[in-house]
Fold these 3 entries.
Entry 1:
Amino acid sequence: MAAESTENEVLAQELESLGGMVHAVESRLADVERVIEGLEAAARTTARALEEVSSHLGLGVQSNAPSRVRGNLMRLDLARADDGDQRREHARRRLAHRS
């Protein structure tokens, strides 16, 4: 009986340790997701700025680099839009509108 109790205590300690590790990984993942969102926002801003600069330079249709960047970002939005139908539909509409 004492050996069983000791084994249970060891298992409880291991589970507690693993729980702490899981919590740390979840916290780090949340940090990474926030950084990714910031990078995506910066990329969208850059794509808009490139589009505006190209229109001011009279490049218009000839320069499709900004639209390619925007299209890639919208495809990324679609890939990440697994958190709900509304967001997925919104990304599809934006992609269709830009094409």
Entry 2:
Amino acid sequence: MAETRAQSNKRVRQEALREWLSKKCTAQHLVDNLNKIEKLDPESESFSNDLAKYKTANEQRFKMLEEYRPTEKYVEADITATELTHEQWLDGLEDGSSTTTEA
């Protein structure tokens, strides 16, 4: 199915936002803010304001990273063929035993 003008515009905007986020909103910013939080002086009058500021900044950055940058997931799949029935294979998972056929 052909892409509509609205879909094309949305895709372009999303790509531009992802590019901007990759440059401006990195995980390093989150780490930097955590380091700043660790260095805050609890005795300071502005402690709670500074803490709230860094906490909010980190929460918003994390939400943006999560929403607009694709999450990379690693899934390990065992695709070897066995002669086990489905039930035997499931029992092997519960037991922690090998998923190969037993002799």
Entry 3:
Amino acid sequence: MKDSHLINYNLFCSRTGFDIQHILKSLPNLSYEDFCSMLRKRKVCPPDVDYFIENKKKISPEEIKTTATKKIDDLEKIDKDTEDKLDTPTPAPKKKRRRRTRKKDDV
């Protein structure tokens, strides 16, 4: 698809709340080409290489480690939740009362 048909990157960020730093924290090994292909699949015109490199430099290795440990903790919580849901039986659905439609009387 031509880049002229794609949505402006800044407009996309403001409308959807997309944050490049959040993506780079969650995927530290992301290359510019992969980033561009991801945006083009969403029909968004990717930013310049300089913009990508600047944001990648802003992220410190400590932040990457903390996000990775948070993801592991979240996965453990999800596993525990699914085990709890499998153990508890689901109650039978309650019957709902259907009301009759009102008939109009001719006078």
